[in-house]
Amino acid sequence: MSTEEPLYWGLNARSYCTLIHVSQLSSFIIPGLGIILPIVLWIAHKDQNEDINQHGRVTANWLISLLIYSVICFVLTLIIIGALGFIVLGLMNIAFAIVAAVKANKGELWVYPLSFEFFKR
């Protein structure tokens, strides 16, 4: 009888959930990767672990919401205020990813504020 915890890409479930949130910040290295990578991480193991599924859902909800907010800011750049909106969105994304990752590392699920619920929990 094995009591070993399953590993997901070499990480335990809690660390993997943390990685889902932190991976959003990869857009600073390769633009667009911060949207694709968290979703790929979620989809890869969502059926194998409920915690991974929950963390992936809240992250995907935030990313889609962030995309909607970005489109609104893009339209608002015509009247200059959109540039400020992009700065605020960028700072919120960094802060939210860090808070969610810290909570995930503690085994807690944190729902991103201001995110629409496209994927039900």
From TrEMBL:
Subcellular location, principal: membrane
Annotated localization: Membrane
Domain of life: Bacteria
UniProtKB keywords: Membrane, Transmembrane, Transmembrane helix
Bilayer disposition of the protein: Multi-pass membrane protein
Taxonomic lineage of the native organism: Bacteria, Pseudomonadati, Pseudomonadota, Gammaproteobacteria, Alteromonadales
Annotated transmembrane regions: 20-45, 66-99
Organism: Alteromonas marina
Name the record gives this protein: Orotate phosphoribosyltransferase
